[in-house]
Design a protein that fits this description.
Length: about 325
Amino acid sequence: MPGALECGSCHALVHASRLEQLGASARLHEERREAVEASATWSRVLELLPPDSAQAEWVRGRIERLASAIANTPTVDARRAWIRKLGPLAPVAILLVNGKYLLALFKLKFLLSLAAFVTFYWALYGVKFGVGFAILILLHEMGHFVDIKRRGLPADMPVFLPGLGAYVRWSALGVPARTRALVSLAGPLAGCIGAAACALLWSKTGDALWIGLASVSALLNLLNLVPIWVLDGAQAIAALDRTERILLSAAAVVFAAAFGQPVFLLVAAGAGYRLFTRDIPASPDHAVMVYYLLVLTALGFLIALAPPPPVHS
């Protein structure tokens, strides 16, 4: 229907690509503390969303918060008066206030959670294996982070949860399924590269530590590709149509037999389950499908390379 904001049959947003661009621009203005520009850009986003949609409600809330921030922002004259009152202490105060921009590179939450994460696995497995394992998890999360940032989208530095894993917080509002899939696969790809580097070091040194790190990292990244719940595979498979999901499930069964790794059957089962969900797109995405299969294949080779490592103390 002309003028419609979403497809009447599949409910896909008509202006999805434009919404992604505007959303990225609005978030960038927010990161730069440009509340007026951010509010104006979110207003343009709102015009392209169905009024009764959850996305529109979220954007309206965003605009209201920005309006409150704008109302509470001191004027230029007020700032100058405040600086004059501080006298010789003004440069120090300005440096402390603007220090938040320096922390953008290394967020305090990132540093503290990473330190706790390293300490936790150091205590469990010893310094070499514990620190190595934490670094490999960091590589996985930085894969997501770098891929998000290179697309011009805002993202927080990774946060680590000792004993549970880690995550990168970012807003996927208005982001196409393909972009979300590629961001999700970037983590396992980075983890796979890290595991491959450990395997290479093992081949050069013969030290069992390296193959232990390689196989554990590969296994965890493979588990992350099971297409269910909040795992990376759940976002990746969202870009695949019904035929591709069937092929992915079949390929995972073949990989389970070829590599002798039953964990691939979890991927097969997850892909089978996703045949009955309502998020199946109308058209295929061959690039995401090939990407998914290549990462699965590489991880399969790395896992099959050696048995699970001994526990280090």
